Amino acid sequence: MGAKYKPKITIFHCTNAFSELASLSLTGGNGFDLRTVKLPCSSMIKDVYLLRAFEAGSDAVIVLACPEGECRQVSGNLRARKRVEKVQEILDEIGIDGRRLSLFNIAPEDREATAKIIRKTLSGLATLDSNTAS
Amino acid sequence: MIVGEQKPIQEIKEMVAPYKRLLILGCGTCVKTCFAGGEDEVATLASSLRLAFRGQGKNLKIEELTIERQCEDAFIQEAARSIADSDAVLSLACGAGIQALARRFPTTPVLPGVNTTFIGVLESQGLFTEECLGCGDCELARFGGVCPITRCAKKLLNGPCGGSRDGKCELDGDTPCAWQLIIDRLSVLGQLDNLRAQVPPKDWRLSNSGGPRKLVREDHII
ipTM score of the complex? Predict the structure, then answer.
């Protein structure tokens, strides 16, 4: 990993889990680039969206969903988890490492939890090379 | 519908490796319904292959397209221009669609991205089950709409075999015993007497055992 390596993280988030994630003070200037994509429900995530985030250069992709049992669409967060698990398998198969993709259930607007998730993701990335496929 | 599942990415990757311009062609009918070859699967596979090859320093140019049906020439024609611009086509259709495509474009390699598995139904969300073998001589009226040829592991026409336990097949505890289903269904219909008649041996010449079949409809031929 080069000295100038600046990890790129993309977060797809349910608008009910986080209304304006982009306003987090964590965005930019902290040794990593953060892009956020707001979804009406985490279940709106498609396999290809996650993969295209990696194609666009993301080193890690995070999906933030509402806590299980609290999805306004009943089972949207469960569907999102299934999709994430499937894409993790694809990433492993194509040599990108499924650990670059993760889903977390967070309480609405829990900024501290989100900050922890990003820190955890960054420390996880430190054990991996940059996304060579980007 | 015809049910299929996408081949493993590694197998697909090896198949398409010799080519530089690839068309991934989806089919918007059966394989779309079983999540093997519709627009979403085309997009996901294309992205996966781009990432896989980029990681190896190879730039594979991939075009994505899904047509309504690959088993009909009228729809295949819509892909003609994209096929002309490609070194090879990775078809996500069933085996019939792939062969129809190969027949229509004899000088373009057409590669299978899907394993065609069976004729079946969507039994519940994400669960597809085989319901028809295409035997060529349907006997469902006799059996209350449950096919023992497809759904009984022993293909018994004069069942049950006696190995059924709690309504499940003795070969696979997750599979309903077809003969249990037949008896239950005929009971509801008041047609249990159907089972008094001995069913003669099946004429398998009407199935694929007699070689590839052909259906001629003279009334549609000018």
Answer: 0.90
